[in-house]
Amino acid sequence: xxxxKEIRQQFLTGERALFQGRCLKIVDTTFADGESPLKExxxxxxxxxxxxxxxxxxxxxDIRVKDCTxxxxxxxxxxxTENMTVEDSPIEAPKNFRRCRNLTLKNVSFSNAAExxxxxxxxxxxxxxxxxxxxxxNTSNIRAENLTLYGNYSFDGGRNVEIRNSKLLSKDAFWNTxxxxxxxxxxxxxxxxxxxxxxxxxxxxxxxxQGMCYIDNLVMKNCKLLNTTLAxxxxxxxADIRGKxxxxxxxxxxxxxxxxxxxxxxEKDKIDPSKTRILCRG
Length: 282
Fold this sequence. Notes:
The protein has strands spanning 5-8, 11-12, 22-27, 30-31, 42-47, 50-51, 57-58, 61-66, 69-70, 78-79, 82-91, 101-110, 121-131, 140-150, 159-164, 167-169, 178-183, 186-188, 197-202, 205-207, 216-225, 236-241, 244-249, 253-258, 260-265, 276-280. The chain is mainly β. The strands form four sheets. The protein has an eight-stranded parallel beta barrel.
């Protein structure tokens, strides 16, 4: 087995400072001005280190990061990288993690997550907090636990997404998605789930203007809809709602069960009302 070379408490500058680095243990080191310091690196352990400039980890493999910091100018930090774990790390830079495979983020905070986690595959998020629009666009095979997200247009185009025990404050979340399941979570944002296929919400609380519309196969089990109006337009839906739905508009088919529905809009020139069963417990 190749012996791991240690780099400790260094201040590295200049372009490609550790280009094509192999089997390195990097501790308490600052990557200052200079692009692509670890481009094309392999089998790297990073602890207590800092990235202060652009493109630190591109085309890399087998990377383990713990207690490291990406500063604001470490933009587009990790692209085209495989087999990477990041733990206990704050990330200030936007546009991070693009076209990555087999990525795990644990106890990570993104203060500016704009355009982050795009076109990735096989992603695990655990105790992640992110603020920024267009989070996780066109990313597949995501498993998220205890995700807190502040940002619109999240998960657009995502495939095979599972989210648990999370809070999403996100207008236009889950647009154009396929096979998304959310458990035990809170979602607030207008136009939730439009143009999606196979969206399932279990034990969730939702607040949404015109939420859950234009969806092919929407399933809601034991959910609450707070301040949610004009829901389910042109969706095929199986929904079991605890409490009141403020208004339902033109569902295309299925069954909607709730304690009460404040307003029911069924326009015969737009949908066939006979294809949807409406059941009110009250």
